[in-house]
Write a structure and sequence with these properties.
Bound molecules: iron/sulfur cluster
Strand order of the largest sheet of chain A: 4-3-2-1-5-6-7
Strand order of the largest sheet of chain B: 5-4-3-6-7
Structural class of chain A: alpha/beta
Strand content of chain A: 15-25%
Shape of chain B: globular
Largest sheet of chain A: 7 strands, mixed
Radius of gyration of chain B: 22 Å
Helix content of chain B: 25-40%
Largest sheet of chain B: 5 strands, parallel
Shape of chain A: globular
Oligomer: heterodimer
Strand content of chain B: 15-25%
């Protein structure tokens, strides 16, 4: 997994609550058997018009969001299905962090497996970031933020800085780009002991 | 203070913690792992690349359901990409020694229907699947939740999951279920009250006289939709209803082993005085048949009500969500629910495709015909449900009324297979999600109970099932 220490990037603001995984990656794109290549289908039904061209009204298609790598969203981001295709699509598109007041549980967990940091901030702080992103866009520019996972802070260069909390184990795995499964397999003896104590037949190998 | 009184969740959790190494999340043992074709190919591929094996293939069960056509099973699958995904599942199950209920297996079906039906699901177990509706299995008193594909790979390799213990939320529904009101209406009502994120971070335990009075399959309907309130799992304490349901199921213990299991299972319900992190209490008498009007399951109201006016919402997020939803749904605030006309009716999905659901729908349409303006279909949840329904003559009731009678699968619940809505088609659906595009791009979904869907098919618009003339 790609490690994450700090990242500075352009912010794209998606001003909608309850963005569900069916919107992040519609089901017609779930039939691939690889983990890669989902970015082209991200927010497909919102991003593209019926003729296949980009929808100029959609937030990610606006010039202010070009090459964005930090996604700003509203409450309950990533609700709905457990499909990891959603974080795969976001990561493949280029996002490294998602900032929202709240996230759905499964989506939140899935992010960590894909080198992406989900960041919960207060509703008021998120509101402020929406304002700053909009102000930059109105001035014909782009808004940038820095996510520092070592310090657990998000900041811009105009005085905004907040710390966020993240599970220490998830953070460590992300900082070091650790293989989750490899780590767990170090506990094979404990797993076998649990199985023996619960009367399950021994697993060979 | 009764410090030893534990909830159902506490008991299952405590029993399954393998270890909690310092600085790491605890490892939770997983008793049963259910696998389907959409969220597993990358997990098996990961194992292969790392040279890993499935730790307990005998605790892992697979079936194709999301992609499968529900038309004639003898025909080849027309969509090459769907076919590839199903072929990949087959090859992976063969390679890793996982039991597969394949398309030609009499017991194939939606993973959350066949788990309980075959006795794979049992009280006190931890059960996972790469699917958010895994909570369904909690109806039998297990801790069951959906996981992502990386976690699927983790469970395949280690039979454990890294998990922080979730909080507990007791949803108590007191009183008796009013006539005409079903488990589906109860759960839609609860989601409407809780919101789509009210349960985030929690495992719901449904309690109270109303919940206790529900049959096993109705309990599954309730637990199934826990994720729509944001909760990863929902559970109901096992009791005689649960044990009677499981007795004699293929993969449940038999004879003396079954009686010994019951003795263990009887200890699972929450102890008197056990403390939940949160408790919410509702009255069954307040619930009327429910219909969703928007694009998330919490945007729901009674059949006797009107589509809300977005201006009525005080929270700006709720207001803009409602405005967006009504625009997508092609509805205006103030429209009476019973005046909403329908193009399609779908009875199926892991929420409502079991035999009791089909019986309820059939009893409504017996002696009636589907309205000329409506295309209606019934998709049994599994091969077994289908055979049982046919043995009871329900297929004839549906067919004679003008319903399409299909093969088992997820079908139009998510439109990943040939069953989809066309843009702007409006559907009364017994499934669990009314998200934009869920049943087909531009399609408009209203979630209802099987009886309400059946009545709507006959009339061509929603009707209050409490006024129905049964023939
Ligand atoms: S029926 Fe629908 S919700 Fe249930 S498993 Fe299939 S696609 Fe998912």
């Amino acid at each position: 997994m790609q490690p994450f220490t700090t990242h500075t990037g352009i912010v794209a603001a998606l001003d909608r609550a309850n963005v569900d995984t069916d919107q992040i990656i519609p089901k017609q794109f779930l039939k691939r058997i690889e983990r890669t290549g989902f970015g082209q289908f991200l927010f497909f039904d919102w991003r593209f018009l019926a003729d296949g061209g980009p929808n100029p009204e959609f937030e990610l298609n606006k010039p202010a969001a070009a090459d964005a790598s930090v996604l700003l969203a509203r409450r309950n981001f990533g609700c709905g299905s457990s499909r990891e295709h959603a974080p795969w699509a976001l990561a493949d598109y280029g996002f490294r962090a998602v900032i929202a007041p709240t996230f759905a549980d499964i989506f939140f967990n899935n992010c960590f497996q894909n080198g992406m940091v989900p960041i919960r901030l207060d509703e008021a702080d998120v509101e402020e970031l929406f304002r700053r992103t909009a102000a930059a866009a109105a001035a014909g520019g782009q808004y940038r933020m820095t996510v520092d996972l070592r310090a657990c802070t998000v900041s811009d260069d105009a005085g905004f800085s907040r710390s966020f909390t993240v599970d220490p184990f998830r953070r460590q795995c992300l900082l070091e780009g650790l293989d989750d499964i490899g780590l767990s397999l170090r506990h094979t003896a404990e797993i076998a002991a649990w199985e023996a104590a619960h009367g399950l037949p021994a697993v060979s190998g | 203070m009764p410090t030893t009184a534990r909830t159902l969740l506490d008991k299952i959790w405590d029993d399954h913690v393998v270890c909690s190494p310092a600085g790491e999340l605890p490892l939770l043992y997983i008793d049963r792992h259910l696998v389907h074709e959409v969220t597993s190919p990358q997990a098996f591929e990961g194992l292969r690349l790392a040279g890993r094996k499935v730790r307990r293939p005998e605790a892992t069960f697979a079936t194709p359901d999301h992609n499968v056509p529900t038309s004639d099973r003898r025909l080849p699958i027309a969509d090459p990409v769907s076919k590839q995904q199903i072929d990949t599942l087959r090859a992976n199950c063969r390679e890793f020694g996982v039991r597969l209920f394949d398309l030609d297996d009499a017991d194939q079906g939606i993973v959350h229907v066949i788990g309980p039906e075959l006795g794979i699901t049992q009280p006190g177990m931890t059960i996972v699947c790469g699917d958010s509706h895994t909570a369904t299995h909690g109806a039998l008193g297990s801790l069951a939740f959906g996981i992502g594909t990386s976690e699927v790979e983790h469970v395949l390799a280690t039979q454990t999951l890294r998990q922080a213990k979730p909080k507990s939320l007791e949803l108590r529904v007191e009183g008796r279920l009013p006539s005409g009101v079903t488990a589906k209406d109860i759960v839609l009502y609860l989601i409407g009250r809780l919101s789509t994120e009210g349960g985030v971070g929690h495992v719901i335990e449904y309690t109270g006289a109303c919940i206790r009075s529900l049959g096993m399959e109705q309990r599954m309907t309730v637990c199934n939709m826990s994720i729509e309130a944001g909760a990863r799992a929902g559970m109901i304490a096992p009791d005689a209803v649960t044990f009677d349901y499981l007795r004699g199921r293929d993969l449940a213990p038999k004879g003396a082993a079954f009686e010994a299991a019951v003795a263990r299972w009887e200890k699972l319900p929450s102890d008197p005085g056990a403390v939940y992190d949160r408790v919410e209490i509702f009255q069954a008498a307040d619930v009327v048949p429910q219909v969703t009007w928007g694009t998330n399951p919490a945007q729901v109201t009674g059949v006797d009500a009107t589509v809300p006016d977005p201006g009525r919402f005080t929270d700006p997020n709720d207001r803009s969500s409602a405005e967006r939803a009504l625009e997508y749904m092609g509805l205006a605030g103030g429209t009476r629910i019973v005046d909403i006309p329908l193009d399609r009716v779908f009875i199926g999905s892991c929420t409502n495709s079991r035999i009791e659901d089909l019986r309820a729908a059939a009893s409504v349409i017996r002696g009636y015909r589907v309205a000329a303006t409506v295309r209606a279909m019934v998709v049994p949840g599994s091969g077994r449900v289908k055979r049982q329904a046919e043995a009871e003559g329900l297929d004839r009731v549906f067919r004679e009324a003008g319903f399409d009678w299909r093969e088992a699968g997820c079908s139009m619940c998510l439109g990943m297979n040939p069953d989809t809505l066309a843009p702007q088609e409006r559907c009364a659906s017994t499934s669990n999600r009314n998200f934009e595009g869920r049943q087909g791009k531009g399609g408009r979904t209203h979630l209802v109970s099987p009886a309400m869907a059946a009545a709507a098919a006959v009339r061509g618009h929603f009707v209050d099932i409490r006024d129905w003339q049964f023939k």
